[in-house]
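Troubleshooting: if your tokenizer reports a length mismatch, compare your output against this known-good record of 411 residues.
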Amino acid sequence: MIESLFFRKHAIARHLSGPMLKEREEFLQYLATQDMHPMQLQNVAMDLLHIIRVMRITQLRDVSEAEIRTAAELWAQETKPQNYRGTNKTSATRFRHVARRWFRYLGILIHPAAPACLFDPALSQFIDGARLDVQPETSKLYIFKIRRFLIWIASRRNSLSSITAQDINEFLEIDRVSGHRPKTIAAQCQALRAFFYFADRRGWCRPGLAQAIRNPPIRMRDSNVTGPPWTAVRRLIKDSDGTSKADRRAKAVLLLCSIYALRNKEVTQLTLSDFDWYNETFIVRRRKGGPIQLFPIQHEVGGAIIRYLQTSRPQCRSRHLFVTQKPPYRPLRTVYPIISRRMKRLGIESVHIGPHSLRHACATALLRKGTALKDIASFLGHRSMDAVSVYAKYDSRMLRAVAGFSLAGVR
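Known-good structure output:
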């Protein structure tokens, strides 16, 4: 692994002669399978040597969070040449991040026991009995936020029945003064409401306490058009008609983002097996655990993808549709640079640039063509109540009517 990351002989020799070579190479190989960029892998490889040196680790042993924090502070204060980041908070943060991740991978990181809380039994019953209509990752975040509040309130109240709305507001105000954003506080409110609805049904808390938890006001996005006009989108697509590999890939990306209004992650998640060329359909995995939608392959989009696959996509093990152009080949993490650079080069004016701007342009064009708002919401994959009710009514004919329209004349 080391030989594939470094080219200079003295650098290779330094890494090969360092302690715990096997453990370092296994970790780097693991990160490579997670699509980490080679430059990032080089940085991690160098970080590992410094972690070993500063923490004086020559063999596997248990490591605590406190030891990592102390070592990170020592590393940040070093002024030696090897501390290429200089003395700052960022270097200590990176040191801690890499060290934790490596020791966790090795299974030697000691996790401090969570402090006991008076309300842990109630939280355990909530975890076992509540049916949260959220993804597992969101559920874990809910539990973290709820326990954070329960630990705080345990020093003030000795029972759930004695908790008041004023207590909750005081807790949220501390978050606000600490600099938490309104959306973060709103997420905390959502978690607490779920818990106190559960507690209310069991008679643990004061009736109506959950309804008293109100989200902070959140400034909505500007309702003005944030995407370019459709004529500019078509000019952007036409500009990618070249024969280079970059142009072929860019055109396929641009068409998916504009014709189907796909988000960045929805494009990068597409795989070769998502396309059924016999039935001329493909599937899209909506973000945040949303539904899988089936779309017809519009003729222009299908032609661009086929040209990309036949002439520009490198042969590699990855099953993702879009991969990097230079080895080691790996799935694209973002299509933002592909779109934003071309928009800037053409001088296309837009409040936002990137895939979201094309998504907005598509929605605006659909609206001007007379498409119903609920169909637009469903086409875009929004998880509103209206969109959910329309998902069940989707069929290939309706999707083909929406995805196969001609926007060439829209101005």
